[in-house]
Amino acid sequence: MKAYILDAYDKGNQLRLGEMPDPVVGPDDVLIEIHATGLNVIDSKIRNGEFKLILPYKPPFVLGADFAGIVTRVGANVTRFAIGDAVYGSPRQGRIGTFAEVIAVDQADVALKPANLSMEEAASIPLVGLTAWQVLVERAKLQRGQRVLIHAGSGGVGTFAIQLAKHLGLHVATTAGTSNLDLVRELGADTVVDYKAQDFSDLLSGYDVALNSLDGTTLAKSLKVLKPGTKLISISGPPDPVFARQQGLNWGLRQVMRLLSASIRRKARRRGIDYSFLFMQANGEQLSSITTLIESGAIRPVVDRVFPFAALNDALAYIDTGRAKGKVVVSIR
Ligand SMILES: NC(=O)c1ccc[n+]([C@@H]2O[C@H](COP(=O)([O-])OP(=O)(O)OC[C@H]3O[C@@H](n4cnc5c(N)ncnc54)[C@H](OP(=O)(O)O)[C@@H]3O)[C@@H](O)[C@H]2O)c1
Questions:
Q1: What is the pTM of this model?
Q2: Quick one: three-class SS letters along the chain?
Q3: Which residue's CA is the closest to the ligand 1 atom numbered 15?
Q4: Given pLDDT bands bounded at 50, 70 and 90, which one contains residue 142?
Q5: How far apart are CA 95 and CA 32, in angstroms?
Q6: Which region holds residue 269: left if phi is over 0, alpha if psi is between -120 and 50, else beta?
Protein backbone atom coordinates (compact mmCIF):
# COMPACT_ATOMS: atom_id res chain seq x y z
CA MET A 1 0.00 0.00 0.00
CA LYS A 2 1.02 3.64 -0.46
CA ALA A 3 1.65 5.46 2.80
CA TYR A 4 3.37 8.48 4.28
CA ILE A 5 6.29 7.12 6.28
CA LEU A 6 8.13 8.73 9.17
CA ASP A 7 11.76 7.61 8.75
CA ALA A 8 13.15 9.44 11.78
CA TYR A 9 11.81 11.59 14.60
CA ASP A 10 12.58 15.22 13.79
CA LYS A 11 10.86 18.59 14.17
CA GLY A 12 9.31 19.68 10.88
CA ASN A 13 10.52 16.56 9.07
CA GLN A 14 8.73 15.78 5.79
CA LEU A 15 7.02 12.40 5.65
CA ARG A 16 8.11 10.16 2.77
CA LEU A 17 5.47 8.83 0.38
CA GLY A 18 6.44 5.20 -0.21
CA GLU A 19 5.33 1.57 -0.14
CA MET A 20 4.57 -0.30 3.09
CA PRO A 21 3.39 -3.90 3.44
CA ASP A 22 -0.42 -4.28 3.63
CA PRO A 23 -1.55 -4.60 7.26
CA VAL A 24 -2.13 -7.98 8.88
CA VAL A 25 -5.82 -8.44 9.78
CA GLY A 26 -6.22 -9.97 13.26
CA PRO A 27 -9.31 -11.93 14.33
CA ASP A 28 -10.91 -8.83 15.93
CA ASP A 29 -9.89 -6.45 13.15
CA VAL A 30 -11.61 -4.90 10.18
CA LEU A 31 -9.55 -3.92 7.15
CA ILE A 32 -10.46 -0.46 5.92
CA GLU A 33 -9.87 1.12 2.54
CA ILE A 34 -9.23 4.69 3.70
CA HIS A 35 -11.02 7.43 1.75
CA ALA A 36 -10.00 10.38 3.95
CA THR A 37 -7.83 11.04 6.99
CA GLY A 38 -8.10 13.82 9.54
CA LEU A 39 -4.96 15.57 10.76
CA ASN A 40 -4.29 16.39 14.38
CA VAL A 41 -1.72 18.32 16.39
CA ILE A 42 -0.61 15.01 17.89
CA ASP A 43 0.62 13.90 14.44
CA SER A 44 3.11 16.77 14.51
CA LYS A 45 4.01 16.13 18.14
CA ILE A 46 4.70 12.45 17.44
CA ARG A 47 6.75 13.38 14.32
CA ASN A 48 8.77 15.85 16.43
CA GLY A 49 9.58 13.12 18.93
CA GLU A 50 7.66 14.77 21.78
CA PHE A 51 5.78 11.54 22.56
CA LYS A 52 8.71 9.13 22.14
CA LEU A 53 8.73 8.07 25.79
CA ILE A 54 4.96 7.67 26.13
CA LEU A 55 4.15 6.23 22.69
CA PRO A 56 7.31 4.39 21.60
CA TYR A 57 6.62 3.93 17.86
CA LYS A 58 9.81 2.75 16.14
CA PRO A 59 10.60 4.44 12.79
CA PRO A 60 9.91 3.70 10.02
CA PHE A 61 6.18 3.84 10.71
CA VAL A 62 3.02 5.47 9.39
CA LEU A 63 1.47 8.43 11.21
CA GLY A 64 -2.21 9.37 11.34
CA ALA A 65 -4.99 8.88 13.88
CA ASP A 66 -8.31 9.54 12.08
CA PHE A 67 -9.91 7.71 9.17
CA ALA A 68 -13.12 7.37 7.22
CA GLY A 69 -13.49 4.59 4.68
CA ILE A 70 -15.02 1.29 3.61
CA VAL A 71 -14.63 -2.13 5.27
CA THR A 72 -13.04 -4.52 2.76
CA ARG A 73 -12.29 -7.54 5.01
CA VAL A 74 -13.32 -8.73 8.48
CA GLY A 75 -11.44 -10.94 10.96
CA ALA A 76 -12.93 -14.23 12.21
CA ASN A 77 -14.36 -12.72 15.44
CA VAL A 78 -15.85 -9.59 13.91
CA THR A 79 -19.57 -9.25 14.57
CA ARG A 80 -20.18 -5.49 14.43
CA PHE A 81 -19.26 -4.79 10.80
CA ALA A 82 -19.59 -6.33 7.35
CA ILE A 83 -17.73 -5.86 4.07
CA GLY A 84 -18.98 -2.69 2.37
CA ASP A 85 -19.85 -0.77 5.56
CA ALA A 86 -18.92 2.92 5.52
CA VAL A 87 -17.10 3.54 8.82
CA TYR A 88 -14.91 6.00 10.66
CA GLY A 89 -12.74 5.98 13.76
CA SER A 90 -9.48 6.58 15.53
CA PRO A 91 -7.28 3.51 16.09
CA ARG A 92 -6.09 2.69 19.61
CA GLN A 93 -2.63 3.58 20.93
CA GLY A 94 0.08 1.52 19.29
CA ARG A 95 -1.93 1.10 16.07
CA ILE A 96 -1.94 4.52 14.37
CA GLY A 97 -1.27 4.74 10.63
CA THR A 98 -4.11 6.43 8.76
CA PHE A 99 -1.83 8.37 6.35
CA ALA A 100 -2.14 5.34 4.10
CA GLU A 101 -4.43 3.65 1.61
CA VAL A 102 -5.39 0.85 4.01
CA ILE A 103 -5.43 0.16 7.77
CA ALA A 104 -6.47 -2.73 10.02
CA VAL A 105 -8.35 -1.57 13.13
CA ASP A 106 -9.86 -3.41 16.09
CA GLN A 107 -13.64 -3.48 15.59
CA ALA A 108 -14.08 -1.99 19.08
CA ASP A 109 -12.49 1.26 17.83
CA VAL A 110 -14.78 1.68 14.80
CA ALA A 111 -18.29 3.11 14.27
CA LEU A 112 -20.61 3.48 11.31
CA LYS A 113 -19.99 6.78 9.53
CA PRO A 114 -22.74 9.39 9.92
CA ALA A 115 -24.89 8.93 6.81
CA ASN A 116 -25.21 12.70 6.27
CA LEU A 117 -21.43 13.33 6.09
CA SER A 118 -18.96 12.96 3.22
CA MET A 119 -15.87 10.84 3.83
CA GLU A 120 -13.82 14.03 4.28
CA GLU A 121 -16.24 15.45 6.86
CA ALA A 122 -16.40 12.13 8.72
CA ALA A 123 -12.61 11.85 8.89
CA SER A 124 -12.51 15.20 10.69
CA ILE A 125 -14.48 13.91 13.67
CA PRO A 126 -13.16 10.89 15.62
CA LEU A 127 -10.13 12.09 17.62
CA VAL A 128 -11.49 15.52 18.53
CA GLY A 129 -15.04 14.22 19.00
CA LEU A 130 -13.91 11.48 21.37
CA THR A 131 -11.66 13.92 23.24
CA ALA A 132 -14.55 16.33 23.82
CA TRP A 133 -16.86 13.46 24.81
CA GLN A 134 -14.34 11.99 27.26
CA VAL A 135 -13.77 15.40 28.89
CA LEU A 136 -17.35 16.68 29.11
CA VAL A 137 -19.40 13.50 29.44
CA GLU A 138 -17.13 10.79 30.84
CA ARG A 139 -14.80 12.67 33.17
CA ALA A 140 -16.59 15.93 34.06
CA LYS A 141 -20.06 14.34 34.08
CA LEU A 142 -21.52 17.79 33.42
CA GLN A 143 -25.25 18.27 33.97
CA ARG A 144 -27.72 20.54 32.21
CA GLY A 145 -27.37 24.15 33.39
CA GLN A 146 -23.73 23.87 34.48
CA ARG A 147 -21.05 26.22 33.15
CA VAL A 148 -17.99 25.20 31.16
CA LEU A 149 -15.03 27.18 29.82
CA ILE A 150 -13.67 25.73 26.57
CA HIS A 151 -10.36 27.24 25.46
CA ALA A 152 -9.48 27.73 21.78
CA GLY A 153 -13.08 27.41 20.61
CA SER A 154 -12.09 27.79 16.95
CA GLY A 155 -9.70 24.80 16.95
CA GLY A 156 -10.37 21.17 16.13
CA VAL A 157 -11.30 20.18 19.67
CA GLY A 158 -12.99 23.51 20.47
CA THR A 159 -15.40 23.55 17.51
CA PHE A 160 -16.65 20.09 18.45
CA ALA A 161 -16.64 20.64 22.24
CA ILE A 162 -18.73 23.84 22.02
CA GLN A 163 -21.44 22.03 20.05
CA LEU A 164 -21.41 18.98 22.34
CA ALA A 165 -21.59 21.21 25.44
CA LYS A 166 -24.60 23.08 24.01
CA HIS A 167 -26.28 19.76 23.20
CA LEU A 168 -25.76 18.80 26.88
CA GLY A 169 -27.56 21.99 27.95
CA LEU A 170 -24.48 23.76 29.35
CA HIS A 171 -23.59 27.43 29.47
CA VAL A 172 -20.45 27.72 27.32
CA ALA A 173 -17.71 30.33 27.53
CA THR A 174 -14.87 30.15 25.04
CA THR A 175 -11.69 31.98 24.06
CA ALA A 176 -11.04 32.77 20.40
CA GLY A 177 -9.12 35.23 18.25
CA THR A 178 -10.77 38.32 16.74
CA SER A 179 -11.31 36.73 13.32
CA ASN A 180 -12.99 33.65 14.82
CA LEU A 181 -15.50 35.29 17.17
CA ASP A 182 -18.42 34.87 14.73
CA LEU A 183 -17.57 31.21 14.15
CA VAL A 184 -17.67 30.27 17.85
CA ARG A 185 -20.88 32.28 18.42
CA GLU A 186 -22.50 30.51 15.50
CA LEU A 187 -21.47 27.15 17.02
CA GLY A 188 -23.42 28.12 20.15
CA ALA A 189 -20.94 29.71 22.58
CA ASP A 190 -22.80 31.94 25.07
CA THR A 191 -19.85 33.99 26.32
CA VAL A 192 -16.99 34.74 23.95
CA VAL A 193 -13.66 36.23 25.00
CA ASP A 194 -11.35 37.66 22.33
CA TYR A 195 -7.99 36.40 23.59
CA LYS A 196 -6.17 39.02 21.54
CA ALA A 197 -7.90 41.90 23.34
CA GLN A 198 -9.05 40.59 26.73
CA ASP A 199 -7.86 38.39 29.60
CA PHE A 200 -10.49 35.69 30.18
CA SER A 201 -9.48 35.32 33.84
CA ASP A 202 -10.51 38.95 34.53
CA LEU A 203 -13.93 38.44 32.94
CA LEU A 204 -15.15 34.95 33.90
CA SER A 205 -15.97 33.41 37.29
CA GLY A 206 -18.11 30.71 38.87
CA TYR A 207 -17.46 27.99 36.27
CA ASP A 208 -17.87 24.23 36.91
CA VAL A 209 -15.29 22.89 34.46
CA ALA A 210 -12.49 24.31 32.33
CA LEU A 211 -11.17 22.40 29.32
CA ASN A 212 -7.60 23.55 28.65
CA SER A 213 -5.90 22.91 25.33
CA LEU A 214 -3.38 25.77 25.54
CA ASP A 215 -0.19 26.56 27.46
CA GLY A 216 0.76 26.45 31.13
CA THR A 217 -0.04 30.13 31.73
CA THR A 218 -3.59 29.69 30.44
CA LEU A 219 -3.90 26.51 32.50
CA ALA A 220 -2.95 28.24 35.76
CA LYS A 221 -5.15 31.27 35.02
CA SER A 222 -8.10 28.96 34.37
CA LEU A 223 -8.14 28.12 38.09
CA LYS A 224 -9.36 31.69 38.74
CA VAL A 225 -12.61 31.14 36.83
CA LEU A 226 -13.53 27.88 38.59
CA LYS A 227 -15.61 27.42 41.76
CA PRO A 228 -14.17 25.28 44.59
CA GLY A 229 -15.11 21.61 44.20
CA THR A 230 -14.88 21.74 40.39
CA LYS A 231 -12.58 20.32 37.73
CA LEU A 232 -9.73 21.67 35.60
CA ILE A 233 -9.12 19.18 32.79
CA SER A 234 -6.18 19.66 30.44
CA ILE A 235 -5.59 17.85 27.17
CA SER A 236 -2.35 19.70 26.38
CA GLY A 237 -0.49 18.76 29.54
CA PRO A 238 1.13 18.55 31.91
CA PRO A 239 0.50 14.81 32.31
CA ASP A 240 -0.28 13.67 35.86
CA PRO A 241 0.59 10.56 37.93
CA VAL A 242 -2.79 8.89 37.24
CA PHE A 243 -2.16 9.11 33.51
CA ALA A 244 1.38 7.76 33.99
CA ARG A 245 -0.03 4.75 35.85
CA GLN A 246 -2.74 4.13 33.25
CA GLN A 247 -0.10 4.20 30.51
CA GLY A 248 1.89 1.56 32.42
CA LEU A 249 4.97 3.82 32.44
CA ASN A 250 8.03 2.78 34.44
CA TRP A 251 8.86 4.19 37.88
CA GLY A 252 11.22 6.85 36.51
CA LEU A 253 8.71 8.20 34.01
CA ARG A 254 5.96 8.14 36.65
CA GLN A 255 8.16 10.41 38.80
CA VAL A 256 8.76 12.72 35.82
CA MET A 257 4.98 13.08 35.27
CA ARG A 258 4.52 13.69 39.00
CA LEU A 259 7.08 16.50 38.88
CA LEU A 260 5.80 18.03 35.64
CA SER A 261 2.31 18.44 37.11
CA ALA A 262 3.30 19.12 40.75
CA SER A 263 2.90 22.89 40.50
CA ILE A 264 -0.56 22.95 38.86
CA ARG A 265 -1.83 20.14 41.11
CA ARG A 266 -0.68 22.10 44.18
CA LYS A 267 -2.25 25.36 42.98
CA ALA A 268 -5.50 23.55 42.16
CA ARG A 269 -5.59 21.76 45.53
CA ARG A 270 -5.23 25.09 47.36
CA ARG A 271 -8.43 26.24 45.67
CA GLY A 272 -10.26 22.93 46.21
CA ILE A 273 -10.15 22.18 42.47
CA ASP A 274 -9.36 18.81 40.92
CA TYR A 275 -6.66 18.98 38.22
CA SER A 276 -6.37 16.11 35.76
CA PHE A 277 -4.79 15.39 32.40
CA LEU A 278 -6.83 13.52 29.81
CA PHE A 279 -5.51 11.55 26.87
CA MET A 280 -8.10 10.43 24.32
CA GLN A 281 -8.81 6.70 24.18
CA ALA A 282 -10.21 5.00 21.07
CA ASN A 283 -13.83 4.01 21.65
CA GLY A 284 -16.22 2.79 18.94
CA GLU A 285 -19.24 2.85 21.26
CA GLN A 286 -18.81 6.51 22.18
CA LEU A 287 -18.21 7.25 18.51
CA SER A 288 -21.56 5.57 17.68
CA SER A 289 -23.25 8.00 20.10
CA ILE A 290 -21.46 10.82 18.27
CA THR A 291 -22.77 9.43 14.95
CA THR A 292 -26.31 9.71 16.33
CA LEU A 293 -25.73 13.34 17.41
CA ILE A 294 -24.35 14.25 13.99
CA GLU A 295 -27.20 12.53 12.14
CA SER A 296 -29.73 14.37 14.33
CA GLY A 297 -28.12 17.69 13.37
CA ALA A 298 -26.96 18.51 16.93
CA ILE A 299 -23.31 18.62 15.82
CA ARG A 300 -21.80 19.48 12.44
CA PRO A 301 -18.22 19.11 11.27
CA VAL A 302 -16.14 22.26 10.88
CA VAL A 303 -13.60 21.59 8.14
CA ASP A 304 -11.15 24.35 7.35
CA ARG A 305 -9.26 22.82 4.42
CA VAL A 306 -9.15 19.56 2.47
CA PHE A 307 -5.80 18.67 0.86
CA PRO A 308 -5.16 15.98 -1.79
CA PHE A 309 -3.13 12.91 -0.75
CA ALA A 310 -0.15 14.21 -2.77
CA ALA A 311 -0.06 17.33 -0.53
CA LEU A 312 -0.19 15.63 2.87
CA ASN A 313 3.05 17.30 3.98
CA ASP A 314 1.51 20.71 3.16
CA ALA A 315 -1.51 19.77 5.29
CA LEU A 316 0.78 18.89 8.19
CA ALA A 317 2.65 22.19 7.74
CA TYR A 318 -0.70 23.99 7.90
CA ILE A 319 -1.50 22.23 11.21
CA ASP A 320 1.91 23.40 12.45
CA THR A 321 0.90 27.04 11.96
CA GLY A 322 -1.62 26.63 14.82
CA ARG A 323 -4.13 28.75 12.87
CA ALA A 324 -6.59 26.08 11.66
CA LYS A 325 -10.28 26.96 12.05
CA GLY A 326 -11.76 23.57 12.86
CA LYS A 327 -10.20 20.60 11.10
CA VAL A 328 -7.72 19.85 8.35
CA VAL A 329 -8.41 16.76 6.23
CA VAL A 330 -6.59 14.84 3.50
CA SER A 331 -8.58 13.12 0.80
CA ILE A 332 -7.05 9.74 -0.06
CA ARG A 333 -9.32 8.40 -2.83
N1 LIG B 1 -4.89 14.80 25.18
C2 LIG B 1 -5.60 14.50 24.09
O3 LIG B 1 -6.15 13.40 23.98
C4 LIG B 1 -5.72 15.52 23.00
C5 LIG B 1 -6.65 15.34 21.98
C6 LIG B 1 -6.77 16.36 21.01
C7 LIG B 1 -5.96 17.49 21.07
N8 LIG B 1 -5.06 17.60 22.07
C9 LIG B 1 -4.22 18.81 22.17
O10 LIG B 1 -5.04 19.93 22.32
C11 LIG B 1 -4.45 21.04 21.68
C12 LIG B 1 -5.45 21.66 20.73
O13 LIG B 1 -5.76 20.76 19.70
P14 LIG B 1 -6.66 21.24 18.46
O15 LIG B 1 -6.70 20.12 17.49
O16 LIG B 1 -7.94 21.79 18.94
O17 LIG B 1 -5.72 22.42 17.90
P18 LIG B 1 -5.87 23.32 16.64
O19 LIG B 1 -7.11 22.98 15.89
O20 LIG B 1 -4.59 23.29 15.88
O21 LIG B 1 -6.00 24.78 17.29
C22 LIG B 1 -5.87 25.89 16.49
C23 LIG B 1 -6.84 26.95 16.97
O24 LIG B 1 -6.44 27.41 18.27
C25 LIG B 1 -6.71 28.80 18.35
N26 LIG B 1 -5.84 29.44 19.34
C27 LIG B 1 -4.48 29.51 19.33
N28 LIG B 1 -4.02 30.15 20.41
C29 LIG B 1 -5.10 30.52 21.13
C30 LIG B 1 -5.29 31.22 22.35
N31 LIG B 1 -4.26 31.67 23.05
N32 LIG B 1 -6.55 31.40 22.81
C33 LIG B 1 -7.62 30.94 22.11
N34 LIG B 1 -7.51 30.27 20.93
C35 LIG B 1 -6.26 30.07 20.46
C36 LIG B 1 -6.40 29.30 16.95
O37 LIG B 1 -7.13 30.49 16.70
P38 LIG B 1 -6.34 31.82 16.20
O39 LIG B 1 -5.87 31.51 14.80
O40 LIG B 1 -7.39 32.89 16.26
O41 LIG B 1 -5.20 32.02 17.17
C42 LIG B 1 -6.87 28.14 16.05
O43 LIG B 1 -8.21 28.30 15.57
C44 LIG B 1 -3.17 20.53 21.03
O45 LIG B 1 -2.09 20.78 21.90
C46 LIG B 1 -3.40 19.04 20.92
O47 LIG B 1 -2.21 18.29 20.91
C48 LIG B 1 -4.91 16.66 23.01
A1: 0.98
A2: CEEEEECCCCCCCCCEEEECCCCCCCCCEEEEEEEEEEECHHHHHHHHCCCCCCCCCCCCEECCCCEEEEEEEECCCCCCCCCCCEEEECCCCCCCCCCECEEEEEHHHEEECCCCCCHHHHHCCHHHHHHHHHHHHHHCCCCCCCEEEECCCCCHHHHHHHHHHHHCCCEEEEEECHHHHHHHHHCCCCEEEECCCCCHHHHCCCEEEEEECCCHHHHHHHHHHEEEEEEEEECCCCCCHHHHHHCCCCHHHHHHHHHHCHHHHHHHHHCCCEEEECCCCCCHHHHHHHHHHHHCCCCCCCEEEEEEHHHHHHHHHHHHCCCCCCEEEEECC
A3: 156
A4: very high
A5: 13
A6: alpha
| Ligand 1 atom having least distance to the Cα of 40 | 15
Query: For ligand 1, atom 9, which residue shows the shortest CA distance?
Result: 236
Q: Are 127 and 66 in contact (CB under 8 A)?
A: yes
177 lines ligand 1 (CB under 6 A): yes
Residue 138: pLDDT band with limits 50, 70, 90: very high
pLDDT at 12 > cutoff 90: no
